[in-house]
Design a protein that fits this description.
The chain contains twelve helices and five strands. The protein has helices at 3-16, 20-25, 34-37, 41-57, 67-73, 93-96, 116-129, 143-150, 158-173, 179-196, 201-207, 236-244; strands at residues 81-85, 104-108, 133-139, 212-218, 225-228. Strands 2-1-3-4-5 form a five-stranded mixed β-sheet, with helices on both faces. The chain starts with a helix and ends in a 21-residue tail after the last helix.
Length: 265
């Protein structure tokens, strides 16, 4: 079987399984809402992985970025996921996941370090917009983690960031492999665990099955997002299906893209 045939079969499986409607949600803000349409964490992750697959392939759709969408967003926002990521200029979540205005609620700090303000911001997205999924995303070559690995005292409030990451570095030093790489992964997973245990809003939503919090890592060289942690296996199918969903409008390969063309055969 040719590679194109395999891609088409995967796309058809995606359609028949009923998840076709998930991708169609990404066509505009109102349909992409986790609160208005009951999108699950698995469905939200599928939408993110579809977008990241488009970004990696180079066939991006740039959804929800035109004047019409900007006008719609004036009346409110309905994000389907919250992304907690580093402030590094090489890691822009909306671009990495090929999303547009109103799709993602984004919280960015150096090294994904949390404090009361950032946790409160995440809680706001869960409590008021009912997002079902929070993704804590570290990335390759993170300067904040690198500073914690190198040790010493950093100037000003940067030292607060370094100290917050040191426990992850200590754990990484006891692991096989590269300390920096391991520390980046451990830090993202630690922050995800911290959020899962944060009372009362986040922990209660997790306990009630309304929210899932997942750790991830963005790879600078490939552009791919790798899921981390014990619950990463819950989304193993998302990447395979997403890779089959190449954009009809942007790609020379006629395959299913429910963002650009929800009625695509």
């Amino acid at each position: 079987m040719s590679s194109k045939g395999f891609v088409l079969i995967l796309a058809l499986v995606f359609l028949v399984s009923g998840t076709y409607a998930i991708g169609a949600l990404g066509a505009n803000v109102s349909h992409g809402s986790a609160s208005g349409t009951g999108v699950t964490a698995e469905q939200a992750m599928q939408m993110l992985m579809e977008g990241n697959a488009r970004f990696v392939s180079g066939y991006v759709c740039h959804p929800n970025q035109l004047d019409e969408q900007r006008a719609k967003a004036v009346s409110g926002q309905e994000p389907f996921a919250t992304i907690v990521s580093c402030s590094d200029s090489r890691v822009p979540p909306e671009i990495i996941f090929d999303q547009g205005i109103g799709n993602l609620f984004v919280v960015r700090t150096a090294g994904e370090v949390m404090d009361n303000a950032t946790i409160g911001t995440i809680e706001y997205s869960v409590e008021h917009f009912h997002v079902p999924l929070v993704v804590v995303m570290g990335h390759d070559d993170c300067g904040a983690v690198k500073a914690a690995v190198e040790g010493g005292t950093a100037p000003g409030q940067i030292n607060y960031i370094v100290n917050a990451i040191k426990p992850a570095v200590d754990t990484a030093k006891g692991m096989r492999g590269d300390v920096l790489s391991n520390a980046i992964n451990v830090n993202a997973k630690d922050v995800a665990a911290q959020l899962q245990a944060t009372h009362p809003i986040l922990s209660e939503h997790v306990k009630e099955g309304k929210l899932q919090i997942v750790a991830a890592r963005y790879h600078l060289d490939t552009g791919a997002v790798e899921l981390l942690g014990n619950n990463a296996h819950n989304y193993e199918g998302a990447r395979a299906v997403a890779c089959a969903s190449t954009c009809v409008r942007c790609s020379p390969t006629p395959a299913l893209c429910s963002v650009c063309s929800p009625t695509a055969p």
